[in-house]
Specification:
Radius of gyration: 34 Å
Structural class: alpha+beta
Number of domains: 3
Strand content: 15-25%
Strand order of the largest sheet: 4-5-3-6
Shape: elongated
Order of helices and strands: EEHHEHEEHEHEEEEH
Keywords: Coiled coil
Length: 243
């Protein structure tokens, strides 16, 4: 009896050898090749998971650094106020600001309460504003408390917010405008970069690029430092005094 089974004129072993040669010649994958690809794919998956975790960790560290930098910047600006609408005034010294606060706002501000006064030109408009640095936070609060007396005067006083806060406030002010167009009776207060509407709080969500109610901003959307800061600062849901 022959040791190999003939299939037609070709033995089974020779037929398999021919098939193997054909597979090699055409570059088709063999079981060994597939096993090796599976191992390589598994290694790539592990590497991808590691890289994703590293990127997420770097993002968190970056957000933390951004948060700390913004806190430091705003801390350095907390005693600053911007006086707008004083374009026709040639005087920009502490004495002028002191007199303005006393006569217009009825707030006693002495020369000792003012550290510096800077003139800031607004582009090429020919207009400017004055950035005033006060020596005490209490003076800043008293001045802001009496800014309602400037209504209709053409003069404006505002806090010296950081660029990031100003950008968020811009979106929130637009949202406030849209709400008031629908219902002018709504009680709306913008405090820093949180908008209070009838007891609800709204922030500018950078990830979703829109204004969102804070109660609806889930934890997994709190990736940007601004959103986490807003949540940390929000406190109670009651409406605060305007500032």
């Amino acid at each position: 009896m022959e040791s190999e089974l003939d299939v037609g004129k070709i033995s089974l072993s020779k037929l398999l050898a021919e098939f193997s040669a054909m597979i090699d010649a055409k570059g088709l994958a063999r079981k060994e090749d597939l096993d090796e690809l599976k191992m390589q794919f598994s290694a790539l998956q592990d590497e991808n998971r590691f890289l994703r975790a590293s990127v997420e960790n770097l993002q968190k560290r970056n957000d933390t650094l951004e948060y700390r930098l913004e806190v430091m910047e705003n801390e350095g600006r907390k005693n600053n106020l911007l006086f707008k609408g004083l374009n026709n005034r040639d005087v920009e010294d502490s004495e002028f600001i002191s007199t303005f606060c006393k006569d217009v706002l009825k707030v006693p501000v002495s020369l000792h309460d003012i550290a510096n006064v800077y003139k800031i030109n607004i582009g090429n408009s020919g207009k400017h504003l004055l950035k005033v640095t006060f020596t005490r936070a209490n003076t800043v609060r008293e001045v802001l408390k009496n800014t309602k007396k400037l209504k209709g005067s053409g003069f404006f006083i505002d806090r010296d917010y950081s660029f990031a806060v100003r950008a968020r406030r811009k979106h929130l002010l637009q949202f406030r405008k849209e709400l008031l167009q629908k219902d002018k009776t709504k009680r709306i207060v913008l405090r820093r970069d949180i908008l209070y509407v009838e007891g609800k709080k709204y922030i500018w969500c950078e990830l979703d690029n829109k204004v969102k109610e804070m109660a609806n901003v889930s934890a997994d959307r709190m990736d940007s430092s601004s959103e986490r800061q807003a949540v940390v600062r929000s406190g109670s849901s009651s409406l605060p005094a305007a500032s």
